[in-house]
Design goal:
The chain is globular, with a radius of gyration of 18 Å. It starts with a helix and ends with a helix. Mean pLDDT is 85; it is low at 1-10. The protein contains eleven helices and no strands. Helix 2 packs across helix 5 and helix 9 (128-146) packs across helix 10 (153-172). The chain has a single domain (3-201), classed as Tetracycline Repressor, domain 2. 80% of the residues lie in helices and 0% in strands. With 202 residues, it is mainly alpha-helical.
């Protein structure tokens, strides 16, 4: 299924279809929480969601596509109190608070984090559109945390996206302590934001 077709279908889903799609995402998330990437199969996702197995493929082309959509939902849940994070303090502090939040939530769900990292970094072309949507959502949430226009916003988002991905790999694959990884993203956020402003001012 092409990316354009996937988005067309998503926009025209009925309420029941939307609910079914959310059940599939939730089922995949639950399986990944318990057993990581290997535990998520389209067969088991369908069974847990209570739908016919062929139904899964009407919404998600592959397992990696499904897990990338899980990642988007995970990121939204992890930052749902973005307004509280964005209140007060400096833009750099708000940004680093959001980055740290993502690190600590990921550290608390290591099997799910590992599954997400494996899915979004594979060469599966069906992931491309979902990964782009995830990137754009992350960019908008980072901008919201800063609370003011950011020079070269897209460039900043790209760099911080790489920082977050590296943080997830450090947690899931290298098994680095959450406090260590949080310190790295905190420093990275401050440096990237300062660098963008210095470049704009020069």
């Amino acid at each position: 299924m092409s990316g354009d077709a996937r988005f067309t279908v998503t926009r025209t889903l009925t309420r029941d279809q939307q609910a079914r799609r959310h059940r599939l995402i939730d089922a995949a998330r639950e399986l990944a929480l318990d057993g990581g990437y290997p535990a998520v199969t389209m067969h088991d996702v369908a069974d847990r969601a209570g739908v016919a197995r062929a139904t899964v493929y009407r919404y998600f082309a592959t397992k990696d596509h499904l897990l990338t959509e899980v990642a988007a939902t995970w990121a939204q849940r992890a930052t749902r109190d973005i307004d509280a994070l964005a209140a007060g303090d400096t833009p750099a502090e708000r940004l680093t608070a959001l980055l740290e939040r993502l690190v600590y939530v990921a550290a608390g769900e290591p099997a799910l984090t590992s599954a997400i990292v494996q899915a979004v970094t594979r060469g599966d072309p069906s992931v491309d559109d979902a990964r782009t949507a995830l990137f754009l959502s992350a960019r908008d949430r980072l901008s919201a945390a800063v609370g003011e226009p950011v020079p070269a916003r897209d460039d900043v988002a790209v760099v911080l996206g790489h920082v977050l991905l590296a943080a997830m790999v450090s947690l899931a694959s290298l098994h680095r302590p959450a406090d260590e990884v949080a310190a790295v993203v905190r420093t990275s956020g401050r440096l990237v934001l300062a660098g963008a402003r210095a470049t704009a001012a020069s």
